[in-house]
Known about the structure:
By secondary structure, this protein is α/β, with parallel strands linked by helices. It has 2 domains: about 1-200 and about 355-380, Rossmann fold (3-Layer(aba) Sandwich); about 220-305, formyl-coa transferase, domain 3 (2-Layer Sandwich). The chain contains 15 helices and 12 strands. The protein has a 6-stranded parallel beta sheet, with helices on both faces. A 3-stranded antiparallel beta sheet has the order 7-8-9, with helices on one face. A hairpin with a 5-residue loop joins strand 7 (about 230-235) and strand 8 (about 240-245). It is elongated, with a radius of gyration of 25 Å.
Amino acid sequence: MSALRDLVVLDLASVGPAARASRILADYGLQIVKVAPVQASSAKQVDPVFHAYGAGRGTRRMRVDLKAAGGRATIQRLAAHVDVVIESYRPGVAARLGVGWDDLRAANPRLVYCSTSGYGQHGRYADWVGHDINYQALSGYLACTERNAKGVPALPGATIADGAGGGMHAALAILAALLERASTGAGKYLDVSVTDGMLNLMSLYVDQYLATGEDTRPGSGVLSGRYAWYGIYATRDGKHLSVGAIEGHFFRNLCRLLGLEQYGERQYDAAAQPEMRAAFEAAFARRDRDEWVALLAGADTCVAPVLSIPEVCTDRHLRERGTFRDAIHPERGRFEQLAPLLAGCARDAAPHTVAAAGHTDTDEVLRGAGFAAAEIAALRSEGCVE
């Protein structure tokens, strides 16, 4: 990853998909400079809690007033010294502020500029505001989700749209653009729509409908609950198991260990599913979750426990893989956080020291871009940077 460590990302966002993308890029070694509004500004940008987004791991911070001419000029000048700019303003806002693609590429033709938004930079929904649940809704994800007791799609347990549809989408697009730049020498504009990213995640079902006209609804297919051997089951202690025995030999192993061999050759028998489901429910209710895990998980049955977040954080397998690492906060002391987890990231680094609230690296960043001490002092005096 040494080639990535010389690359600098100027991140004009604070939370959401852009922040997820910066987190991924930082874990792959890119240098992130997070730009927030000056504290005196009335900007609505949200400062994330201290532990969010890796607690600022691999990130330097600065505050800039983009409403001031000096602040805009500062970003325009910085853009000449960075490789990537990420922003998450509503479409057209970055350009009105003077930090849009056309403004910044004039100073740096090699710049990769990534705009993240819910619905993209153009199209009739481009000006809609939204959050994770809205992008899941528009992509068809919620329509394919099991209904709750009231008959409506259940509220998802993770921010899939921000994390994968937006953050991973943006990080992948940025890295691809940087790789392309290495050959062409030219920068690129990236219109990252979180909804597009969610549609990519829904491609199995969307492509199925486009090719065959077959709709996917809860209970209509293998992955949406049609069959008894792909679902969630309660155990005696009120906990749950996930069962995903799709392949025939895994299904037969499961039936044998549950004492339900009579279903071994009826895996796809639609008429047998209600009876089979009831039999599975009764069988799993006879033992505690972890007893079933000990019996089934290592026996080629595609069974795994449904863990709570506290259980995730103490799971022995995850601990053995170095999933967690220490961080040190100047006021809160030592705490744990997820390590860089994506393949190729280094998990065994020293504890990360979290910056104190209000800390900025503005002078260091500006000096690195060639600003003289007198220029920095003038910008601070005018309130353009903090």
